[in-house]
Structure formats: C-alpha cells, structure tokens
Amino acid sequence: IAEGCQRQCTFCVIPSIRGPLRSLPPEDILKRAEFLVSKGYREIIIVAQDTTSYGNDLGKGYGLKDLLKDMAGIDGQFWIKLLYLYPGSVDEALLELIAENKKICPYLDIPFQHTEKRLLRLMGRTGDREAYLRIVSLAKQIIKDLHLRTTFIVGFPTETEEEFQGLVSFVRDVRFDHLGGFKYSDEEGTKAYNLKPKVPEDVINKRYELLMKTQAEISTEKLRNYINKILTVLVDTVEEDIATARHPGQAPEIDGMVLIKDPEGLKVGDFVEVLVDDSTTYDLIGRLV
Ligand code: SF4
C-alpha cells in the first residue's frame, strides 16, 4: 500500500534505498482489492515498510483505518491481514476496528525490534518495555483470540547481556504466537554501522539461539492447546495425502501452517473447518470435520 519510509531506524537501509514514504492512492488499492476478490482471491495482505504510516504523505486525512474500513466493505468472503505495524502507532481505535470487523483477522504483526529503552533510542526507535507491554495488554483485552507476531534484533552494537536478558524476559512474559529473530549485521551507510563496541559474532549467535529456543518452547506449548479444537482455515495447497492451510492467526510464508490429512475434495482457496489432533513446534495437524 506504500513504498519507502519516513522513519529513521539507525540499522535500516530502506529509507536510503526506497526513499521517503509514498502511499498509493486509496482508490487504486480498493479497485485492486475488489478485482482480486471478484477473481476468487481469499486473502488480502496489507503491507508496506511501515504500514501504520499509510496516507501520511497524501495530505487528505485518509489513513490506514479509513482504508481498512473501506476494504472490509467490499462484498465477498475474504480475509484481511495486517503486517508491519510500527509499535508507537498502534492505537485503541485501530485495535477496536480490528476487533469489530470480521473480515480483518485478529492478527497483529508489530516488529518491536528490542525492549530496552537505551537500545531502542540507539536504534532510533520510540517506546520501551512498559509502553510495549501496555500495547500488548490493550490489544489482548480488545481483540478476542488475538495472534501476535513480532521481530527482534539481537546483538545490536553495545547490547549488554543484561539488556538481552531483558528482551528474553519480555518474550517469556508476552508469549508471542510467532517471533522472528534477526542477528544484527552491519549495513554500510547506516548510523549503526559506526556504533561501537560491536557485539562479537559468537555472542550474537548464542543470543540468537537462546531467543529462538525460548520462542520454540513457547510455540510448542501454545500449539498443544489447539488440540481438539475446531478451526476455520483457508486452504493454500492440496496434494494427494496432505493439504496445507492457515487459520486467521497465521500469515503466509512467515508463520506456521495447518496440515490437513486426507484432503479429498479440497481445493485451493476453500475455507473449511478442521479438527486439530496433533501439533509440532510451529505447525498444527488435523482433519476435516
Ligand atoms: S526498520 Fe522499518 S520503520 Fe524503521 S526505517 Fe526501516 S522500514 Fe522504516
């Protein structure tokens, strides 16, 4: 829905490569969405480098919430999913809009990147652990069956062991459904490139492994709770013995999936109900009901 970014995260090359924020006109986006839905597409992913800034450059007072309302008004059976929400721009009105609208999935992808204030300021980002906990708890209160995704960078220059442990304890407290970890790596032309001291590579690797192990344990436990539940899923692929699908809390390619055994008669793009009877670290397994 937009290209470029008006923010200045010190580790990121996107503003210098893609330039400042340029939002697509809402009429074009809505026309395209209508066309896709009329052709049988069942899921619209709303994404930009910073989705929450959509419209700020258009000078019309028309932003992401207006776009979502208009898109959800399109006739047809389809899901809308939101990716890349900047933490400081997720407000109560956006959460309520998601909660009230059945076409918008109860799914939030908020890349927090870190939780400790000193590092977040060095990263050129707003917020801190307390502010982020407030967003998460408000979102959990307002949106029923919320699924939360985030990303974190480990080993940002100057990150101490204590700050890293702060991040891990935040992950344990929040219990994200999906979490992407990134090992910091120097990108020439960014402000972070000149920040010192750098965290040694072996320490970055250890921190990354611990973060991902923590998330794997949380994900395994959370997915076990789905066993014996019935979920509505959207079918992505169908083969002879197995089909892959996703429930409203799973985005394509980045999150886990629902594997359907004995998928006879299923077609790509079907919405079906599945009884979950098993789970792995990141995926659910079930059968049609
Ligand atoms: S990390 Fe995201 S919000 Fe920050 S500058 Fe890059 S694209 Fe923009």
Polypeptide structure, described:
This protein is an alpha/beta fold and 289 residues long. It has two domains: 2-224, pyruvate-formate lyase- activating enzyme (Alpha-Beta Horseshoe); 230-288, Beta Barrel (OB fold (Dihydrolipoamide Acetyltransferase, E2P)). Helix content is 33%, strand content 21%. The chain has helices spanning 14-18, 26-38, 64-72, 92-100, 117-122, 129-142, 161-174, 201-224, and strands spanning 2-3, 22-23, 43-46, 79-82, 107-109, 147-154, 178-183, 230-238, 242-246, 258-261, 271-279, 284-288. Strands 8-9-10-12-11 form a five-stranded mixed barrel. Strand 6, helix 7 (161-174) and strand 7 form a beta-alpha-beta unit. Helix 7 (161-174) runs parallel beside helix 8. The chain is globular and about 60 Å long. It starts with a strand and ends with a strand. The site of iron/sulfur cluster has 9 residues, from helix 1.
Structure at a glance:
By secondary structure, the chain is of the alpha/beta class.
How would you summarize the topology of this molecule?
Blueprint: E1 2-3, H1 14-18, E2 22-23, H2 26-38, E3 43-46, H3 64-72, E4 79-82, H4 92-100, E5 107-109, H5 117-122, H6 129-142, E6 147-154, H7 161-174, E7 178-183, H8 201-224, E8 230-238, E9 242-246, E10 258-261, E11 271-279, E12 284-288
Parallel strand pairs: 3-4, 5-6, 6-7, 10-12
Antiparallel strand pairs: 1-2, 8-9, 8-11, 9-10, 11-12
Helix pairs in contact: 7-8
The protein binds iron/sulfur cluster (SF4).
